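thread from #wetlab-drylab

HS: before we spend reagent money on co-crystallization trials with glutamic acid, can we at least see a predicted complex? here's what I'd submit
DV: go for it
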Amino acid sequence: MCGIVGIVGHQPVSERLVEALKRLEYRGYDSAGVATIDAGTLQRRRAEGKLVNLESRLREEPLAGTIGIAHTRWATHGAPTERNAHPHFTEGVAVVHNGIIENFAELKDELAAAGAEFQTETDTEVVAHLLAKYRRDGLGRREAMHAMLKRVKGAYALAVLFEDDPSTIMAARNGPPLAIGHGNGEMFLGSDAIALAPFTNEITYLIDGDWAVIGKTGVHIFDFDGNVVERPRQISTAAAFLVDKGNHRHFMEKEIYEQPEVIAHALGHYVNFIENRVVPISDAIDFGKVPSLAISACGTAYLAGLIGKYWFERYARLPVEIDVASEFRYREIPLSPQSAALFISQSGETADTLA
Ligand code: GLU
């Protein structure tokens, strides 16, 4: 999955937003965009492909403004074109979204029947139209946000700008992570603390169902029912060096060379390499009592799962079913209550696997 960043502050934001997006490049994406509010008007630049394309768009036509949101898109609904790239605009509302709005088709029909004109093929655009509709119905910005969240189903990290409030970003999380960064008279939003590392290491993570109203000096967080909630402020250890390519040309090359170390780190939790023995885990599953295992994952994680299937069957003699997560969700596998399930996601954010 792709990334979201936002800054509400007192200095120009567009370059910093793109810098923050670069720190999310490791997640993969196919297009990108940025929106700011400049002199009371929403503006955006978008581009297909790599962030260098967005940067050259911004050089041709710079974007002023001290508040903005930005996005790297990994298309799920609609081709990876500039037209489908986020942020999506409608009637003074700007939206970026990671994830999938599962009931977008019925919402789109409903909104279109009421006169909404859709510009893109994305699922995300229904969020912008819903917000615009609730504003037209007379709801305030927060009420509109809350009403929208009550209607959409699926996995989302969302960031929203309202043109008539150039000092607030709204955000919501259900599935993909969102981190809020506390700065000095500026506040930040990002898919992870790594994106925000150059700006701040004071982070508040939203949890699923949370939504937030972020101003220059602080954040108000609400739960799904609209109650004010407190989430802890933490000091992140996501140091800037984590996302460097080091002396490698590509992240992929770097990751290939990192495999021995990364695998050692992972195994280090379970194996005492000095005494050469497995560390007992107190709440581990007793595979001797499990009749079968169902593995679900997507993409490369699915391929990893296939290897897992071979090993579980061969060494543990455990029957294993494996599915692409998007199939597992909708297939009704007759699993016994004692059987175990294993979900694999490299990013930890694959929408279908999380769902
Ligand atoms: N489902 C949205 C789209 O296709 C968001 C994809 C993403 O997570 O970047 O535009």
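DV: Residues 159 and 171 are 4 Å apart (CA to CA).
HS: ok that's useful, forwarding to the group
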